[in-house]
Known about the structure:
The protein has helices spanning about 5-15, 25-35, 35-50, 60-75, 90, 125-140, 150-160, 180-190, 210-220, 235-245, 260-270, 275-285, 305-315, 325-330, 335-345; strands spanning about 75-80, 100-105, 115-120, 145, 165-170, 195, 220-225, 245-250, 270-275, 350-355, 360. The protein is an alpha/beta fold. It starts with 6 loop residues before the first helix and ends with a strand.
Amino acid sequence: MTDRLTPEERIARLTLARTERVGPVTFQQLLRREGSAQAALERLPELARRAGGQKPKTPSPDQIAREIDAGEALGAHLIVQGDDAYPASLATLEGGPSVLWARGHLDLLQRDSIALVGARIASAAGQRFAQGLAVEIGGAGLVVVSGMARGVDAAAHLGSLRTGTVAVLGGGVDDVYPADNAGLYQRLIQEGCVLSESPIGHRAQARDFPRRNRIISGLVRAVVVVEAELRSGSLITARLAAEQGREVLAVPGSPLDPRCAGTNDLIRQGASLCAGLDDVLRAIERPRGLFEPTPVYDVADVETSDQALIDRVLGLVGPTPIARDDLIRLSQGSAGAVLGILLELSLAGRIVVGHDGAVSRSD
């Protein structure tokens, strides 16, 4: 497999992705506006200064070289947006991961896949169902994606190792978490694929798992939830999947078991009931246009916007995240002008743009 990007541009994209205040949404906007990561890096000081801030801290060439060397020492593969190996399903998402590290079989990232997620402290019945369903999904030619957590995730991976499975981690691709899944991790890098957007050596923290979950849902055609309490990371994955246009299915359970409260509620809210493989196959046969690129706006230069519009946008942004579409509508500015303002304000550190594109004040 060959890449369309030059080695210099790939390094520049990794550098831009690791730059302070440049999240996935800002990364994509900079590439669209400047044409390349190399050009974007050159313009960062000017863009931040125009919005009244200091240049974002950019990693040094030595820091980038150390990350690349660490990945090569693991036998991991660096994938940046624009590489041929970058998953086609993630390429359709706004705010998809800027860079990925992968260990194992990269071809699995290009195949149709289904996510199986659920409770860490899962019942024996829940784990048995997840593993059996994973076997059937693999037998149907689909890859199983999960998060290598205890319980349902581990059962899903075990059921699909022979047919193809991908584990998405919150930490780096060398972060074996939880530690008691070390044996499963070794099998995954030999028989499946382990994937992460975090730097090599990064140890997973609580804030990393929602980011991880959006990759799980973004990779797949459908998410199946097997046991989840009402406050559960699996429900975050289900919500993200619905927002991304993926199918959401849930396995019903006893109303007396709190581990089934979340899945039963998903069904109550409109998720498809999953009792086996046939339900999964029916769900993904429905046309949803998952792989059609999301329409994007051109990002205009702030200099083409008037100060009154900049002031209106800033006045609308508060500590509670607000969607960019709402900001465009409420500010009565053009989409390109408002997005240009938000881009430069984020680089200046005056606002924060989340992985979902929502905007909030940085202070």
